[in-house]
Design a protein that fits this description.
This protein is α+β, with helices and mostly antiparallel strands. It has five domains: 174 residues, Rossmann fold (3-Layer(aba) Sandwich), CATH 3.40.50; 85 residues, Translation factors (Elongation Factor Tu (Ef-tu), domain 3); 73 residues, Alpha-Beta Plaits (2-Layer Sandwich), CATH 3.30.70; 107 residues, 2-Layer Sandwich (Alpha-Beta Plaits); 114 residues, Alpha-Beta Plaits. Helices cover 26% and strands 33% of the residues. The protein has 15 helices and 32 strands. The strands form six sheets. It has an eight-stranded antiparallel β-sheet, with helices on one face. The protein has a six-stranded mixed β-sheet with strand order 2-3-1-4-5-6, sandwiched between helices. The longest helix has 21 residues. The N and C termini lie far apart (58 Å).
């Protein structure tokens, strides 16, 4: 067992793409945790999806040994949708490396992550990265950091994860400045569950940080929240690959497997204690996070419904920030209503389900959570637009608003302000950090930023703009339900809630046109309509396939041709009454492709 005074637990926090994973790779290589032969870019990002997109999605832990000390690095994501993963990692640490790109300076997400670390009273070590780039301005960024954190300039470390410059200084700062974990080895066991995964052979594996006490293999333990009891079959650490150990003591970070077969038995943020000598009180754990974006997930093959249900359960174990519950759609059959933190989170979850569980899925248009106040004053929480009550029962609808902080180059301020205006944003303030960068603050409906807002900021600022936001509550808005009717029948999976007036018209028209492109010709005319209540606001039609029934009539009386054409017309009318329109799955995600 390792002396707690020789342990340092730390995370690396930064804005997306400021070099966290590259620095983690360099620390592992520099300390000999991995050999040059084993070394590859993003070694901690072991998901194919992470490597393809160049982002960290899941927090990972790894043990580094340096000069007789054990350094536990808990890697964190940088994208705003995965802030929850960052907060989980920080709960297991005593300090953080704050990484800032020498060419981009401090960004919106950097500030958010710093506040998360300050809330937990963690030691912050400022590091300026990517100093090898020709566009880098390390001295300018150092000044930014010292002013923001209120630290001395000598505390800021310059580094290049690519060349290895500054790596020794970072490792020395971790040992000297980050405090050792505090805990009583003789007290009853208290271990925080910081994450969990499902293994086909070992069942559920919990990642834990020991706060008090000690756990050994074959110890009988229990989860304090769920009350489930098991034996510790396997204990281990990540070095960076899993390595079995016989015991874990105060301050150590590792994993625990104990024939846990049910996904629901392990809750992230739960406390592990021994059955023979349980702790009196559980650890604080994590605040339950509320999903902000909802969509429907349906298996393309109906027989995959059970497989999808099991897959969602396993994914929920590894990603506790999303929710799901069964729902039925007239158009799509049986599926699940899933809640996510944002659009990237939703996209990543869908891709993980398809890759890791070999599923083919269809996704409906994402929407936010509305509060519908009825005539009696009761509040209905609406996650699915198709379940909106009739207009005569509604007093008003409230939609979620966010406070958005946009850090953008000064040259792009005008364009970004116009974009926010178009998205129903309410201007609050402009603050210039220096001659080249400004922070714009807006209050705006969350529904307006769900689709394409982040991408448009990036494209308008050549990649230098960044966005950070927090939910500020629900506010009344003039909203209506937009339905898409196919031959007079509403398609519930395509319903959405939009602002009344011109926006509803443009949205309905764009959807009807898109549906016309997606639906193939049938044996009868297909009428596509966009409707708000009983009012049709847009209409398109797909003409019927036409067979030349008069082809065999060579000359002769015109009345014979007319008779054949009338007969064909009657047949098409009858078919239209009983015919079912074949809507391809592309049509259901067409809403995602329509630029607001």
């Amino acid at each position: 067992m390792i002396d707690a005074q020789k342990i340092r637990n730390f995370s690396i926090i930064a804005h997306i793409d400021h070099g966290k994973s590259t620095l983690a790779d360099r620390l592992l290589l520099h300390t000999g945790s991995i050999s040059q032969r084993e070394f590859r870019d993003q070694i901690l990002d072991d998901m194919d999806l992470e490597r393809e997109r160049g982002i960290t999605i899941k927090a990972r832990t790894v043990r580094i040994e340096y000069k007789g000390y054990v350094l536990n690095l808990i890697d964190t994501p940088g994208h705003i949708d995965f802030t929850y993963e960052v907060s989980k990692s920080l709960a297991a640490c005593e300090g953080v490396l704050l990484l800032v790109d020498a060419s981009q300076g401090m960004q919106a997400q950097t500030v958010t992550n710093v506040y998360l670390a300050m809330e937990r009273d963690l030691k912050i070590i400022p590091v300026v990265s990517k100093i090898d780039l020709p566009t880098s301005e390390p001295e300018k960024v150092k000044l930014e950091l010292t002013e923001f954190l209120g630290v001395d300039e000598s505390e800021v470390i310059f580094c290049s994860a690519k060349t290895g410059e500054g790596t020794d200084k970072i490792l020395e700062a971790i040992i000297d400045q980050i405090p050792a974990p505090v805990g009583d080895i003789h007290a009853p066991l208290k271990a925080l569950v910081i994450d969990s995964v499902f293994d086909s052979y070992q069942g559920v594996i919990a990642y834990i940080r020991i706060m008090d006490g000690i756990i050994r293999t074959q110890d009988a333990f229990m989860f304090m929240q769920t009350g489930c009891r098991f034996n510790a079959e396997v204990l281990g650490i990540f070095d960076p690959k899993p390595v079995k150990v016989s015991e874990l003591g105060v301050g150590e970070v590792g994993y625990l497997a104990g024939t846990i077969k049910e996904v629901k038995d392990v809750k992230i943020g739960d406390t592990v204690t021994l059955q023979a000598r349980p702790a009196a009180e559980p650890l604080e754990g994590y605040q339950d996070i509320q999903p902000m974006v909802f969509c429907g997930l349906y298996p393309i093959q109906a027989v995959d419904f059970t497989l999808l249900r099991d897959a969602l359960g396993k994914l929920r174990l590894n990603d506790s920030s999303f929710t799901y519950e069964p729902e039925t759609s007239q158009s799509l059959g049986f599926g699940f209503r899933c809640g996510f933190l944002g659009l990237l989170h939703m996209d990543v979850a869908k891709e993980r389900l398809e890759r890791e569980f070999n599923l083919e899925l269809l996704i409906t248009a994402p929407n936010v959570v509305y509060h519908v106040v009825n005539q009696k004053g009761e509040v209905l929480v609406l996650e699915n637009p198709s379940k909106l009550p009739p207009p005569n029962e509604i007093d008003h609808i409230e939609e979620p608003y966010i406070r958005a902080h946009l850090m953008v180059p000064a040259t792009a301020v005008g364009g970004i302000m116009q974009l926010c205006q178009d998205k129903r944003g309410i201007y609050k303030s402009t603050e210039y950090l220096d001659t080249k960068r400004a922070v714009l603050t807006y209050e705006m409906p969350f529904a307006e930023i769900v689709m394409d807002f982040y991408d448009r900021i990036k494209s308008m600022t050549a990649g230098y703009g960044s966005l950070n936001y927090e939910l500020i509550g629900h506010r009344p808005s003039d909203l209506v339900k937009l339905d898409i009717l196919i031959n007079g029948n509403p398609v519930d999976a395509l319903s959405s809630i939009v602002e009344r007036g011109e926006r509803a018209y443009h949205r309905g028209k764009a959807l009807a046109e898109k549906m016309k492109e997606e639906i193939h010709k049938q044996m009868f005319e297909v009428v596509i309509q966009a409707a708000v209540g009983s009012k049709i606001i847009a209409r398109e039609s797909v003409s019927a396939m036409r067979k030349n029934v008069t082809e065999k009539c060579y000359g002769g009386d015109i009345s014979r041709k007319r008779k054949l054409l009338e007969k064909q017309k009657e047949g098409k009318k009858r078919m239209k009454k009983i015919g079912v329109v074949d809507i391809p799955q592309e049509a259901f995600i067409s809403i995602l492709r329509i630029d607001n």
